[in-house]
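Follow-up to my post from last week.
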Amino acid sequence: MRPILAEVVTIGDEILYGQITDTNTQWMSTQLDKIGIKTVRKSSVGDQEDKILQILEEAESRADIILLTGGLGPTKDDITKKTLCKYFDDELIINEDALGFITEFFTKRGRPMTELNRQQAMVPKKCIYLANKTGTAPGMWFEKSMGSGKGKIFVSMPGVPHEMKYLMANEVIPRLKKYFETPIIYHKMIRTIGVGESFLAEKIEKWEDSLPAHIKLAYLPSFGQVRLRLTGMGENEETLKQEVQNEVDKVLPMIQSFVFGYDDDDLEVALGKLLKSKNKTISAAESCTGGFISHLFTKVPGSSAYFMGSVVSYANAVKINVLGVKPETIENHGAVSEETVMQMAEGVRALMKTDFAIATSGVAGPDGGTPEKPVGTLWIACAMEGRTIARKVQMSNQRETNINYGSVVAMNLLRKMLNGDYES
Amino acid sequence: MRPILAEVVTIGDEILYGQITDTNTQWMSTQLDKIGIKTVRKSSVGDQEDKILQILEEAESRADIILLTGGLGPTKDDITKKTLCKYFDDELIINEDALGFITEFFTKRGRPMTELNRQQAMVPKKCIYLANKTGTAPGMWFEKSMGSGKGKIFVSMPGVPHEMKYLMANEVIPRLKKYFETPIIYHKMIRTIGVGESFLAEKIEKWEDSLPAHIKLAYLPSFGQVRLRLTGMGENEETLKQEVQNEVDKVLPMIQSFVFGYDDDDLEVALGKLLKSKNKTISAAESCTGGFISHLFTKVPGSSAYFMGSVVSYANAVKINVLGVKPETIENHGAVSEETVMQMAEGVRALMKTDFAIATSGVAGPDGGTPEKPVGTLWIACAMEGRTIARKVQMSNQRETNINYGSVVAMNLLRKMLNGDYES
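User reply:
Got it. Predicted complex:
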């Protein structure tokens, strides 16, 4: 069975000019991937008719499914609907369902409905209207009925991420599953931390070379982590899962201590599961990471079960008055020091009455470095009953990278101590 | 003078499969835009030779500059260098500068250098090697010397963001400025908050219709904010700046109260400037936003001048013991209530001895809602000397959106109070 191919196209000058981040294409291709539809190309073009028409033609020549987002706003610079009419030789008409929903949308919110809002209810005559219950822009489903592209599917959705996501989950994915007969694709991701890509690659080279042809390996590095993605393609889901799992079982012993989780389990999710399984609670004292560790923990649904809270102690006065760091410690050793970060961890652990506590203190940059403590110098600590461990890490000179990386290494120290590893 | 056109191509299965977020293309097109080079298309393809060759041909047919990132890692799944050799009928040779740097790179870090690392020093014979001082993958600059694409520029860079950024800033942009004669493009962005796109559009419709042909307006909405981007194109930079500024001066009176900043000034940056200019300090007590407000403040370089710290009070015990919220207040009104959030703001303000303090308490979701307090219910407060103001906001049922949006509305309340607006 030949694979079903998709192209994802985002429309909007704001994306080309780099004024907004496109997170849609990533999410969309992940969803397609889950139902065995292979994304073969992602593209972004501006709000110009000729550019949009050109990419529609190209995409149609390469893929079975073309998913479009963007250019459906109420304002003058949004021309996707008009352009789709031109491409499908169609005309815009008021869709009553859409109009009804939009009217209700504004009544509910007690906001005035403008003529621009009303026009949001206009869609091409030939398309199937996909009801967007999260906003005023419509979803549109086209089936090419003639020509070389006969049978190909075009879907147009708003660029606002949560509106696109609603339409994908509730309308597009279910329809695609009905419309196409899709092959079986199975991914298994092994998540590692604290080891470099090349080092990992050499450790598992023999295993990698021995992988069967229908199982592929990819390395996905990011901020002190490397994800190993195994992708299997086949006919029978159960067999495929088993084959991939066998490969996982083979490679695991070679890299065990670096593995913190699988698949979509980000470090904060894996840590949450670990804390829950051990029935332990956590708090944090953050200086250079400035609340990012707390954000990582709390963005996980249900984190209130184990994350009690944290103190972002940016000012030294807060380190002293709230966390109980000794003034003379900061005086003698500085805020970025082993002694200070250990007292921060112990202080917040006592304050929040948790089993574990992690702390960070470093020079995030770009300024504030000294010869002895250059930008990127980071001290992390983790405290538990009867034991506090601190580590020094040298990071880069890029503030945002340091905040991310610093958070990850501190959380990895917690992971090791939760697992009873107090040495590495 | 005809505009110089660029295409940005990212290479990697991990992007197509949606396993990583592509932030490179956004950043690259912003940099190109600043020197008057127009990005006309962005594309992502997988690590397959035929797909890469196809997109190189297509891009060459449309653009003057083709910027590539990705596929330069040391592992087997990275094939960009080999493919470029095929496209330019070239061969890989060891580049001595590259080899020297890579050797030093590993010596410095006291890490073993593997054969895979050594191969990182191989580049196509015909390209100009661009020294990457931040990693082991090379930058490569090609000038097409014959055929229809004669004179066109191809640049290949690593996909790791900070390595790509280093090469763009230090090698690629300077060379492009020398190689091409570029037109003048000038952007001015007006940043608004607390007003919808359609509402804004109707408020300024007459002004928008009166804009001269060489000045374009775009609406860029995101999380309770709308950015108005004016883009001017012309010959003389000073004249252009003045013309755009005149339009800004015309529209400002219509939308003044919603405007918090300009250009790249995100809300946290604008607030930082405002706090500095008024010589005020700030702290935060975060429940449902879980540290995200603190992160927004502290990701701004120099924020330690006005941001003293915060308490993430996830557990009620922390609200009571650290922030001094009265137990009976939580008992009688609940943690998500006007009374609690006001005591949180006043408590952290006293604890951290700051001029202002903001607090959030809400139901971020996806669970935890009740009939009276459904998911998305948010209370925010801002406290100053002699005055505390609280507001209730209804958000969505999406946790991540609520954390973002909740942070923004709380920071906007601070903005208003800093500006002496205690009513709206």
